[in-house]
Design goal:
Blueprint lengths: L8 H7 L40 H14 L2 E5 L2 H9 L8 E5 L4 H13 L3 E5 L13 E7 L11 H10 L3 E5 L17 E5 L13 E5 L2 H14 L5 H11 L2 H20 L5 E4 L9 H7 L6 E5 L3 H10 L4 E2 L9 E4 L12 E5 L5 H17 L1
Parallel strand pairs: 2-3, 2-4, 4-5, 5-6, 10-11
Antiparallel strand pairs: 1-7, 6-7, 8-9, 9-12, 11-12
Helix pairs in contact: 2-7, 8-11, 10-11
The structure holds pyridoxal-5'-phosphate.
């Protein structure tokens, strides 16, 4: 395999995880569907034995992610299966989990539900400011999400990770928003870099997957054992689609991040829009830290409209931006986030995911929809 570490992002993603060229073989082999594989004698002699243990389609995808993340990678059935594989086997009664009070809502639900019920002390602290540094004493795992979701606050990863390690904790970073092309948690010292590959990595809004990348091979072995024991396995077809999609991650991000910045600038210039957040805006509170630790600022913008009704009018008036949850796909989408009743946010708060449409078309659509919402 070619050593791609010194090449540009576009080159790296196009070649990530591909096997060496062999005449008559495809660039990316198609998905392998198997429950049992042929395996005679000692099962340890065979690379693939049973479809819950391992699969060559997963191996190629994990190789691609390993190259992009700079560590070993393990794929899971979903982002939440990846979250659970980090947290559930490592937290025992009496252990302390420090997590953001503003992180992805299902992570908080898992922490406050299953983990707290089993005697884990869950400390939820806001991403903004340095609250996490005051909550580290006795922590077993520190969970970080940066930029956080949906409010897009930025955590200082290097400093938080160093202090968490000094306190004896393992550190996991939910890197879903940033992607490994925008931010490298393992290089900044994190033990686990987790992502929902349902978002940018697969990028077409058509499948659910997740992964965890690690620096310590022992952690990779533990994650593999957990996946086998709990059956939190991805389907080979989804994995193959996601691997195929990785090839365009750089060009998708290039267009979508540029769209997000242009949208944030448009929103920031309007009187009927408040609280615009995008870590790539020089006026954003997260900008100084984001410019240090991120090489792209992401595809998600958040902002507030006058209230619930104005927000709903805006979403209904958009022609190109679908009203839908999630982010990171080629199609632009947005939602009134308070409809989930899970975050401490204003009723008119909108989370918008910029896709790969033409910038001018998106800006015109948003401006027209804002005008129409204001006129109602
Ligand atoms: C979507 C998401 C998850 C959960 O991933 P699924 O693939 O939906 O299970 C976790 N963290 C973040 C930041 C997400 O956006």
């Amino acid at each position: 395999m070619t050593d791609l570490r010194r090449r540009g992002d576009g080159t790296r993603v196009v070649h990530a995880g591909l096997p060496d060229a062999v005449d008559g073989q495809p660039f990316l082999p198609g998905p392998t569907f198997a429950a049992p594989f042929h395996a005679s004698g000692d099962p340890l002699d065979s690379p693939y034995v049973y479809g819950r243990y391992d699969n060559p389609t997963w191996s190629a995808y994990e190789q691609a992610l390993a190259e992009l993340e700079g560590g070993r990678a393990v794929a899971f059935a979903s982002g939440m299966a990846a979250v659970a594989a980090i947290l559930l086997p490592r937290l025992r009664p009496g252990d302390v989990l420090v997590a953001p009070s503003d992180c992805y809502m299902s992570v908080r639900t898992l922490a406050r539900g299953h983990l707290a019920e089993r005697g884990v002390e869950v400390r939820l602290v806001p991403t903004a400011g340095d609250a996490v540094l005051g909550a580290l004493e006795g922590a077993r795992i520190v969970w970080i999400e940066s930029p956080s979701n949906p409010r897009l606050d930025v955590a200082d990863l290097e400093r938080t990770i160093d202090r968490a390690h000094a306190a004896g904790a393992l550190v996991a970073v939910d890197n879903t928003l940033a992607t490994p092309l925008g931010q490298q948690p393992l290089a900044l010292g994190a033990d686990f870099s987790m992502a929902s590959d349902s978002k940018h990595v697969s990028g077409h809004g058509d499948l659910i997957l997740g992964h965890v990348a690690v620096r310590d091979p022992a952690h990779a072995d533990e994650l593999l054992a957990w996946r086998i024991e709990t059956g939190a396995i991805p389907g080979p077809f989804e994995i193959w689609l996601a691997h195929r999609s990785i090839a365009t991650l750089d060009v998708r991000l290039e267009r979508a991040c540029a769209n997000a910045l242009a949208i944030a600038e448009l929103l920031g210039a309007r009187d009927d829009v408040t609280a615009v957040r995008y870590p790539g805006l020089p006026s954003d509170p997260g900008y100084p830290v984001a410019t240090r630790q991120m090489s792209r600022f992401g595809t998600v913008v958040s902002f507030e409209l006058a209230g619930e009704q104005t927000a709903n009018e805006f979403l209904a008036a958009c022609e190109l931006i679908a009203e839908a949850t999630s982010f990171g796909g080629v199609h632009s989408s947005a939602e009134r986030r308070a409809r989930w009743k899970a975050d401490d946010i204003a009723p008119g708060f909108i989370r918008l995911s910029a896709g790969c449409e033409n910038t001018d078309d998106l800006l015109a659509d948003i401006a027209a929809a804002l005008d129409r919402a204001a006129a109602v």
